[in-house]
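Anyone? Bumping this.
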Amino acid sequence: GAGVSQTPSNKVTEKGKYVELRCDPISGHTALYWYRQSLGQGPEFLIYFQGTGAADDSGLPNDRFFAVRPEGSVSTLKIQRTERGDSAVYLCASSFGLADTQYFGPGTRLLVL
Amino acid sequence: KQEVTQIPAALSVPEGENLVLNCSFTDSAIYNLQWFRQDPGKGLTSLLLIQSSQREQTSGRLNASLDKSSGRSTLYIAASQPGDSATYLCAVYGGATNKLIFGTGTLLAVQP
C-alpha cells in the first residue's frame, strides 16, 4: 500500500515569505506527527495530531508555526514570515494509534534564502 | 527531560563484520524504543520496535536489545553488507509525552 507522502519534496523561499508543507498519511492511521531535522541531527518533535485535533504542539518553536488536520487525514504545516533559521528537512510520520510504529514520509527540504 | 545519546557517531567496517550500535537514554520511563535507518536525502525507515516489557527483537540480520532499567539499547547487525551503509537512529517513546525523542544517529559505512 501507499506510504506517507509529502509535498513539495523541495521548497526554496525568501526570508519573510509564507510556506505550506503538506503531508498525506497512510490511510487509516489516526495519529500524525511533524518533526524537523537539521543537518547532522536527529529529528525533533514539532506537533502531533490524534484525529483532527492537535494533541500536543509543544515542539512548535514559536507562533510563526501552525499546523492543521481538518478532516483527520491530510495535514498542512504552515510557516509565516520565514527566517533563514527555519531551513531544515520537515518530516511527517503517521501511526495506526499512539505508541505504534511510526512510518515516515520522505520529507520536505525547506531552504530560506 | 529525556535525552538520547548514540555512540559511536560514525563507524566504518569491512564487509562481513558483525557490529553493534549503542543507544542510551536518561529517563527509563519509556513505552517503547524504535530503531530507524536513514539513507542520504531520504526519510526514515523503521527497522525494529521494542516494547518496554520486551528484552529484544529480531528481524533478519538485525537484533535489537533493550535494558530499560539501565537506559540502554543496542542494535546488532550480523554479516554487514555495503547496502547497510546509512545513518541509524534510535528513538524512545514515552507514554507521558506521546512523541519520539531521537538520538543524533550513527553514520555507518560498510566497505566492500
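Late reply, but here is one note on the structure posted above: Chain A touches chain B through 24 residues (CB under 8 Å).
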